[in-house]
Amino acid sequence: MRQIFLDTETTGLFPDQGDRVIEIGCIELLNRKLTGKQLHLYVNPERDSHEDALRVHGITTEFLRDKPKFAAVASELLEFVSGAELIIHNAPFDLGFLNHELARLGLAPMHTHISGVLDTLVMAKEMFPGKRNSLDALCARLDVDNSGRQLHGALLDAQLLADVYIHMTRGQDGLLMDSDTGKDAALASKQVDLSTLTLPVIRASVLELQAHAKVLTEIDKASGGKSVWALTQSAV
């Protein structure tokens, strides 16, 4: 399965009000292994970044002045992501900007060029409800080293997102480059016959059973005698 971690930096928050893409970072994952292929583009947005956005990414108008416009890099981007599943943190934001850029050129939106989209922010909210689920917060929670992230950067954030995604899906401990891993594959395919194992049965002690009964009695009393187990026993 081919997946692309994608991130963008922009001049502001609102593409429908004229904000533009200024940086795109993409990293390829094939069958849950990094291939080493990546795409990193800076784009001349033909406008200044808002002050708040500039504080986030630090990419100045002067730096972008000699960079290509989106029209010049659109085909390279679409070729790189073609047919892949995009993995994006807060996908509506990045896709909203990219779709506006494509629409400016009369091109079809992103979903027509890819196989699908996976939003890691949605995943994180399901896995960690009620907690902060920004990329920085996830890095801290999952022990992903983001010490180099002083400012946001599309390629760096795509790299961090790749590591976070692997941790979130518990597929492997780290990111692997494609290589000849015959020995590792043999180990991974080795099966254990669980039928040969005898699992011990550890029964509760008398004191543990008494403590458990006391807790059930207290819960039943607090519920006014409406606990399910009490009602079931009285019906027997």
Strands, helices and their partners?
Layout: E1 2-10, E2 21-30, E3 33-42, H1 51-57, H2 61-64, H3 70-81, E4 85-88, H4 91-104, E5 116-119, H5 120-127, H6 135-141, H7 154-169, H8 182-189, H9 206-222, H10 228-235
Parallel strand pairs: 1-4, 4-5
Antiparallel strand pairs: 1-2, 2-3
List the secondary-structure elements in sequence, H or E: EEEHHHEHEHHHHHH
Assign the CATH architecture of the largest domain.
2-Layer Sandwich
Q: Which blocks of ≥5 consecutive residues have pLDDT under 50?
A: 178-189
Overall strand count: 5
Structural class by SSE content: alpha/beta
Number of domains: 2
CATH class of the largest domain: Alpha Beta
Q: What's the CATH H-level superfamily name of the largest domain?
A: Ribonuclease H-like superfamily/Ribonuclease H
Mean pLDDT: 86
Determine the number of helices (DSSP H or I, runs of at least 4 residues). Answer: 10
The main β sheet shows up as: 5 strands, mixed
Radius of gyration based on Cα positions? 26 Å
- Report the sheet-strand fraction: 15-25%
Shape: elongated
Tell me the distance between the termini.
55 Å
Strand order of the largest sheet: 3-2-1-4-5
| Percentage of residues assigned to helices | 40-55%
CATH-assigned fold name of the largest domain: Nucleotidyltransferase, domain 5
